[in-house]
Amino acid sequence: MSAPARSAAVPRLLLGSLRTLQLALPKIGVGWMFALLTSNFNRIAIHDLGVAAVLITVMISMHHFLSPFQVVFGRMADRHPLLGLRRTPYFLLGSLLSSLVFLALPGLAVAMGAGSVAATLAGFGLLVLFGIGIAASGDAHHALIAEVSSPKSRGAVVAVVWTFTIVSAIAAAIVIKVVMGDTYTPEKMQALYNLTPWIVMISALLGILGVEQRRSRAEFAVLQAQAQQALPAGSALGAALALLRENQQVRAFFAFVLLSILGIFLQDAVLEVFGADVFGMTVKETTTFTQTWGGGVLIGMLLMGVLSAFLPLSKKLLATVGGAGTALGLGLLTLCAFTEQRALLNPALLLMGVSTGLYNVGALSLMMDMTLEGATGLYMGLWGMAQAFGTGGASVLSGAMKSLLIETGWLSPAIGYSAIFGLETVLMLLSIALLRAVSVEAFHGVTREDLVRSMEVSAAA
């Protein structure tokens, strides 16, 4: 490379790095909201206020099952830009809606603890609005990343964006601890939750303003024509279902995402309980599980992010290797439970974490590659729906298996948890087998006529 070329490459690399960091900033608000729900709201509502655990866990997990709205909002953004922009307005509106919900949660939690049925119904209603807002903002953000990042840089961008999500959740937990202190009071909880719209909207605005290119009228007309050709009138969900029925590549990739996410997160809700049930570990000891696993995920994602920025690594290979490593870690965890050998626990968690980090970079980059011009929002919504169904299904299935296998006394804790972790291992192996049938090149070989035909079928149904 000549000296002028090298000197020109440095500013491009710097600008690319700054743009990547900007795209990651909205995840600060996302990490904050989920940290409040999963580490504060649930604990206070259940432990301090005495609300039935099943009400709170179902309420918190509802957003996973509202993921079809990602397809709806994705298609809406593809076809109906606002103020000349297809992603930015939907992202900001979704972020605002989801963040405002938190202002009412502390008061509702108190009323739910007092036995108010109206407050319980209102709580479910607010979490439905939260799920809709998350669907709109999440699809818009991921579609924007897919549109403004090149295939070569996508692995590094994904690694940085999702690293921000994990780190922001950890940072949010620290802030929550400082503000709340050692004891719960409604006043301290309200003060904490009042920060949410500010944190979410400031990080959202800093992270998205100026990223999406505002089109001229001529350019906008071309984009509109492309969107109309790719997305004729009809139901967005019907179109997505038609694609799943008729396109083998879409079907295989959707199944891969669904099964792999289900496999990765099936242990998430029961892992700390496993440590207590099988090894008699204290709360302080089991809290290190998340640190070990999460630290491994960060290591894996950062390593692959750096390597992806300089080496032409295959995203499918990354997802395959990461999935296989996760399956191996889950197999080791199964052996740990079955033999009750505590020494295997941390190596299993670390291997799972690092491998999941590799999987994240490969799979999330593949999701962005598996889109078509004019239908980016629709496809990102479809893959997001597979992720959400996998995560939500994992939460429900793990709890059901624990109750059925262990709490009934049918199996001993060691054998019961072995069954749960063993099922995860099988699911990961099945997902890897499905990934073998996926080809980005074959996916992009689908003509627009194929896409139009599938949507016409859905419109006529």
From TrEMBL:
It is found in: Membrane. It comes from the Bacteria. This is PUCC protein. The chain crosses the membrane at residues 50-69, 90-111, 117-136, 156-179, 191-211, 252-271, 291-310, 317-338, 344-366, 378-397, 417-438. Pfam families: PUCC. It is a multi-pass membrane protein. Keywords: Membrane, Transmembrane, Transmembrane helix. Its main location: membrane. CDD domains: MFS_BCD_PucC-like (cd06176). InterPro entries: MFS_trans_sf, PucC, PucC-rel. GO terms for cellular component: membrane. Belongs to the PucC family.
